[in-house]
């Protein structure tokens, strides 16, 4: 069985040949962490994503292009500064299995790994569409705009491929990899783990995660009208961009402070959110509207909620019987558990390892640091302001990705 | 003897008090149902001004939750249907009384077009579909439920799912000159009965066909209800054709096509509401929306007012073959899919 080479474009190849080619020493010398030839290629590629025509069609690609600009790359590499005597080197060959339905993750995963100097093979879903296709076009186009030596190096060391379900191919790539990166949730992790790795290799996994939002009632009261509108807009982006199914999108919102004030703040927030949805001309498909009803009514049957409010089809607010009843599974685009708590500390006992992102509005840094400290690693990998939940960063799910994609060599005299 | 007699005004007057009483009954006997209505802010002593004001449940609730209004020890029969693959099975709980009522009312509904006698019956399916009584497919349950209305059954398909032309010819030789009953799912009837009858010149003019199951599989053959009726009539003589619309979640209630075709009618113990999917308000005649089915039969589980996932449209009210609203089913709502981090096709991950 052969696999399709999507980047660089090439004839179908059998997995054994592909592995042999990818494991070979590149002609221009081994790749280094922060290799200038990779940076040259990435910045050319980023420029293509930032082209107005592309950015207009796929806003998520503009974010990706921004992430890969030279200055951003420098910042990420600086953070990786070697400590003391240790030297940093690439891991070797990295096999990436990105999710089928978020079109850009595979690029972040690949770009950071390439930046760390690895040879990479990325399995791109055959169901990829739209943004993912655009990315592959941009990658192939960038190849003809860099120095020939760079193009040759990229061609020798980097591959994006597509293949249908195959034990043979997944097995061979797993066995050849020094690091395997699995995105796409628990199911994907389990499916890939049946293929053994080499003894020295390991997995970097991104299982199912869920997220929630917190608003400081005092912070809300202190905010200007414009800030409150900004919060609603940020929350809209966080929640509705991927139909609330992204692991970083909030599935519940906790109002932190005085309960009565929380109720009126919550009402105002819902009104503002409805205005944003109207301004964005957000459409809830009938099937999605029904899906949300099924989820909401189901939560009522299960005794998790005491009240549900539907603001049109776009926003469903489910009053939780207790904070611990927060939904962690997808209920349908625009379905939010809601509860009020006195302090952030009240949320500590309900946090689990699965919790990934807390989007916040109205808190000061100290309060948030205190909250994170109190959580003490129970869960939550990132606390971000409203509007930034979906912004990918080089630190993800608690991992410093560049560090994960590289190895340390210590030298003692 | 017909159960298609009530005008819309009579239907409202007759059914609304019964349905309001059913709503109260289910609230009192199904904690889950009561929690839904309470969470919606509907008071226990709420009054409802019309059938369309009654709170509806999405039909898929019966796939995700066990909802019943009878104690466990009174459950006489549990119906399970797996609908579309992967969406889980509906679980419908019937006590003795409810099981009896649904059989009786289904019978009364079909008698309207079949008359009082059990007719010789041609089943457009394979006998294998009802062989395994332990695990029924929805199709098997449908075939078995209908078998009661006929006698001297002959199955059109052999055990290898191939049309058994000789069996059909034999049936017609014995019974073809008197009224006989034909039952099957729409796409099977088209594929295995129409084509066989046409190719072998069989005379089905004394047949009464009852069929259901939707048109999805026939769309790529460009066959809709009108075409289906026309070709059957022209090529086989079959002209008494009754499509019906029903679902396991309202077992016993079928919305039956009228004699002149192309419109479905509500039996006197049922009603239909077409809703605007944006506002959930009732649509006027001619405007498509989501179909809500209403029936007084579900007493052992709170399924008396259900929002389906089908689209439909009123063709008219009190102006068709029979009194009341009459409507067409236009198709299914597409499935709500989300793009997320979790690869819902994890089976593909390998």
Fraction of residues in helix of chain A: 40-55%
Q: What is the mean predicted local confidence, pLDDT of chain B?
A: 89
Outline the biggest β-sheet of chain B. Answer: 12 strands, mixed
Give the amount of beta strand of chain A, in percent: 15-25%
Biggest sheet strand line-up of chain A? 2-1-6-5-4-7-8
> What's the CATH class label of the largest domain in chain A?
Alpha Beta
Beta fraction of chain B: 15-25%
- Please report the number of helical segments of chain B: 9
| Arithmetic mean pLDDT of chain A | 94
Q: In DSSP terms, counting alpha (H) and pi (I) runs of 4 or more, how many helices of chain A?
A: 16
Pfam family, one (chain B): LuxE
Organism (chain B): Amycolatopsis magusensis
InterPro entries (chain B): ANL_N_sf, LuxE
Protein name (chain B): Acyl-protein synthetase LuxE domain-containing protein
In brief:
The complex is a heterodimer of chains A (413) and B (350). With 413 residues, chain A is of the alpha/beta class. Chain A has helices spanning 15-23, 36-49, 52-57, 59-67, 70-79, 105-115, 131-143, 148-157, 167-176, 185-192, 217-222, 225-240, 259-279, 286-301, 365-375, 401-404, and strands spanning 2-7, 9-14, 87-90, 93-97, 119-123, 158-162, 179-182, 202-205, 210-216, 250-256, 305-311, 315-320, 335-341, 355-361, 382-385, 395-396, 399-400, 406-409.
Report on the structure:
The complex is a heterodimer of chains A (413) and B (350). Chain A is globular and about 70 Å long. The N and C termini of chain A lie far apart (51 Å). Chain A has two domains: 2-208 and 397-410, Aldehyde Dehydrogenase, Chain A, domain 1; 210-385, Aldehyde Dehydrogenase, Chain A, domain 2. In chain A, the strands form four sheets. Chain A has a seven-stranded mixed beta sheet with strand order 2-1-6-5-4-7-8, with helices on both faces. A seven-stranded mixed beta sheet of chain A has the order 11-12-13-10-9-14-15, with helices on both faces. Chain A contains 16 helices and 18 strands. Chain A has helices at 15-23, 36-49, 52-57, 59-67, 70-79, 105-115, 131-143, 148-157, 167-176, 185-192, 217-222, 225-240, 259-279, 286-301, 365-375, 401-404, and strands at residues 2-7, 9-14, 87-90, 93-97, 119-123, 158-162, 179-182, 202-205, 210-216, 250-256, 305-311, 315-320, 335-341, 355-361, 382-385, 395-396, 399-400, 406-409. Chain A is of the alpha/beta class. The longest helix of chain A has 21 residues, at 259-279. Chain B has 350 residues and is an alpha/beta fold. Helices cover 30% and strands 25% of the residues of chain B. In chain B, strands 1, 4, 5, 6, 7, 8, 9, 10, 11, 12, 13 and 14 form a twelve-stranded mixed beta sheet that branches. In chain B, α1 packs across α2 (31-39) and α7 (186-200) runs parallel beside α9. The model of chain B is unreliable at 343-350 (pLDDT under 50). The chains are: A alpha/beta (413), B alpha/beta (350). At the A-B interface, α10, α14 and β11 of A face α2 and β1 of B.
């Amino acid at each position: 069985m052969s696999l399709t080479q999507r980047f660089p474009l090439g004839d179908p190849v059998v997995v054994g040949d592909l592995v042999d080619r990818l494991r070979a020493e590149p002609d221009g010398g081994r790749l280094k962490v922060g290799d200038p030839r990779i940076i040259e290629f990435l910045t050319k590629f980023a420029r293509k994503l930032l082209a107005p025509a592309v950015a207009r069609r796929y806003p998520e690609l503009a974010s990706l292009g921004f992430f890969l600009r030279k200055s951003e790359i420098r910042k990420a590499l600086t953070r990786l500064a070697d400590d003391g005597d240790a030297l940093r080197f690439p891991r070797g060959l990295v096999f990436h299995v990105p999710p089928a339905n978020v079109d850009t993750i595979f690029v972040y995963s690949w770009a950071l790994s390439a930046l760390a100097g690895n040879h990479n093979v990325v399995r791109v879903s055959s169901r990829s569409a739209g943004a993912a296709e655009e990315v592959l076009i941009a990658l192939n186009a960038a190849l003809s705009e860099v120095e020939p030596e760079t193009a040759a190096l990229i061609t020798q060391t980097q591959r994006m491929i597509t293949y249908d379900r195959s034990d043979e191919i997944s097995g061979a790539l797993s066995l050849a990899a020094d690091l395997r990166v699995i995105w796409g949730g628990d199911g994907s992790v389990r499916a890939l783990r049946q293929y053994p790795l080499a003894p020295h290799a390991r997995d970097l996994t991104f299982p199912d995660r869920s997220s929630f939002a917190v608003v400081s009632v005092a912070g809300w009261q202190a905010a200007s009208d414009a800030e409150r509108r900004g919060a609603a807009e940020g929350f809209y982006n966080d929640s509705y961009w991927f139909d609330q199914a992204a692991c970083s999108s909030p599935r519940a919102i906790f109002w932190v402070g005085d309960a009565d004030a929380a109720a009126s703040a919550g009402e105002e927030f819902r009104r503002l959110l409805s205005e944003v949805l109207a301004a964005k001309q957000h459409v809830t498909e009938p099937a999605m509207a029904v899906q949300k009803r099924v989820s909401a009514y189901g939560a009522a049957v299960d005794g998790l909620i005491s009240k549900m409010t539907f603001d049109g089809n776009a926003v469903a607010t489910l009053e939780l019987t207790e904070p611990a009843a927060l939904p962690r599974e997808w209920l349908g685009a625009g379905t939010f558990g809601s509860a009020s708590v006195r302090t952030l500390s009240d949320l500590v006992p309900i946090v689990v390892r699965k919790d990934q992102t807390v989007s916040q509005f109205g808190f000061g840094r100290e309060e948030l640091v205190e909250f994170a400290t109190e959580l003490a690693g129970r869960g939550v990998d990132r606390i971000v302001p409203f509007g930034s939940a979906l912004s990918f960063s080089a630190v993800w799910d608690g991992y410093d990705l560049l560090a994960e994609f590289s190895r340390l060599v210590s030298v003692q005299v | 003897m017909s159960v298609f007699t009530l005008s819309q005004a009579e239907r409202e007057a007759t059914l609304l008090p019964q349905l309001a009483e059913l709503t109260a009954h289910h609230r009192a006997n199904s904690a889950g149902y009561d929690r839904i209505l309470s969470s919606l802010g509907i008071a226990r002593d709420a009054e409802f001004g019309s059938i369309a004001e009654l709170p509806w449940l999405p039909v898929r609730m019966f796939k995700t939750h066990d909802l019943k209004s009878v104690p466990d020890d009174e459950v006489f029969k549990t119906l399970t249907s797996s609908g579309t693959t992967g969406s889980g099975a509906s679980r419908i709980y019937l006590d003795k009384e409810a099981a009896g009522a649904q059989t009786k009312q289904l019978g009364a509904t079909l008698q309207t077009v079949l008359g009082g006698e059990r007719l010789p019956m041609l089943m457009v399916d394979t006998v294998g579909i009802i062989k395994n009584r332990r695990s029924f497919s929805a199709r098997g349950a449908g075939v078995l439920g209908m078998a009661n209305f006929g006698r001297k059954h002959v199955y059109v398909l052999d055990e290898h799912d191939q049309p058994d032309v000789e069996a059909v010819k034999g049936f017609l030789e014995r019974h073809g000159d008197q009224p006989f009953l034909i039952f099957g799912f729409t796409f099977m009837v088209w594929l295995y009965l129409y084509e066989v009858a046409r190719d072998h010149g069989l005379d089905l003019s004394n047949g009464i066909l009852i069929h259901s199951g939707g048109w999805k599989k026939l769309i790529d053959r460009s066959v809709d209800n009108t075409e289906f009726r026309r070709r059957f009539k022209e090529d086989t003589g079959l002209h008494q054709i009754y499509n019906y619309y029903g679902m396991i979640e309202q077992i016993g209630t079928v919305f039956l096509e009228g004699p002149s075709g192309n419109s479905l009618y509500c039996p006197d113990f049922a009603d239909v509401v077409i809703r605007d999917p944006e506002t959930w308000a009732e649509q006027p005649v001619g405007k498509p929306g989501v179909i809500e089915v209403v029936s007084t039969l579900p007493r052992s589980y709170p399924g008396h007012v259900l929002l389906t996932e089908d689209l439909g449209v009123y063709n008219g009210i009190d102006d068709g073959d029979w009194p009341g609203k009459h409507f067409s089913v236009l198709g299914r709502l597409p499935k709500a899919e989300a793009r997320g981090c979790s690869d819902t096709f994890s089976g593909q991950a390998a």
